[in-house]
Amino acid sequence: MEKEGLALPPAIVGQIDSQVQPGQPFALRLPPGPVPHSQPLSGRYFLVRCGSEVGIERDGEWSIFLRRALFICGRQTVDQAERWQLFLPPIPAEQGLYQQSGDADGAIVADQGLAWLSKRIPGDLLNLSGPFGNGFALLPDPHNLLVVVDIRWSAGWFWQLLPLCELALDRGGRVTILFRAGGMTSVPDLVPWLPLQAEVRAAVDQKQWSDMVRDTLLWADRVCAGVPPESFRELLHLVRETRIRVDREFAQILVTADLLCGFGACLVCSVQTARGGNTRACIHGPVFDLSEVAG
């Protein structure tokens, strides 16, 4: 996982190029150059301003919230620009304290910043800073990549790790993606987004999950995972149980954290390490070696 400096990248203005829906990626056109095409995108994120970009609108709209971290899901070059896909998280259940301005029904939302973003339409401008974070690190040569994602409650980890599949295949490797799902109905909707060369497996109960992880660990040269924190130790145990030797970065994990400033100043993103200390996810992560956070 490549280490970044602490300098804050300059702001970028992007134009929305698709419908925006919570729990789904949306497209955004950006000027070329934020990340070289040779670098992995999975695990990296932009901080997006949740407020109007246009001055005349800002004169009458005072609802300016903290920037929200939106993870990168993909990128294509189109007409001298770059079309990026960013994942907009689902808006949490209605347990917030403040009424969302502009809602005729007086709806209460837990995250008004995400609610503001969800109301954007194609052509709207967004102010972004980034990209931030240290993403997943793949081997430079052809290798077997195992992608492990838990989609029982949300498909967010699937979208955030999806760019790894294309990158590994472009390097001549092979890809297996293993879903941990609450039921088989959620998997078919995601499969069409995967490259045809990727092998897909799905587990719907604990035994299936453990057996499939063990089987694929014997085949894998690298494991990239998006699972909840309560699954970290379980996954690490399976890795150590299955592999005779576990090199650093063999198993990497995307850690969930509150990513607010992007350069470690606010300490809100602090996560506990396996040795009992703390580290800042926004600059040392949010991707870590699994043994660092699940020892």
Could you describe the 3D structure shown?
Helix content is 20%, strand content 29%. It folds into 2 domains: 11-131, Beta Barrel (Elongation Factor Tu (Ef-tu), domain 3); 144-254, Nucleotide-binding domain of ferredoxin-NADP reductase (FNR) module (Rossmann fold, 3-Layer(aba) Sandwich). The protein is built from 7 helices and 14 strands. The model is unreliable at 95-106 (pLDDT under 50). It has 295 residues and is α/β, with parallel strands linked by helices. Helix 5 (232-242) links the parallel strand 10 (222-226) and strand 11. The chain has a 6-stranded antiparallel beta barrel. Helix 4 crosses helix 5 (232-242). It starts with 10 loop residues before the first strand and ends with a helix. 38% of the residues are buried.
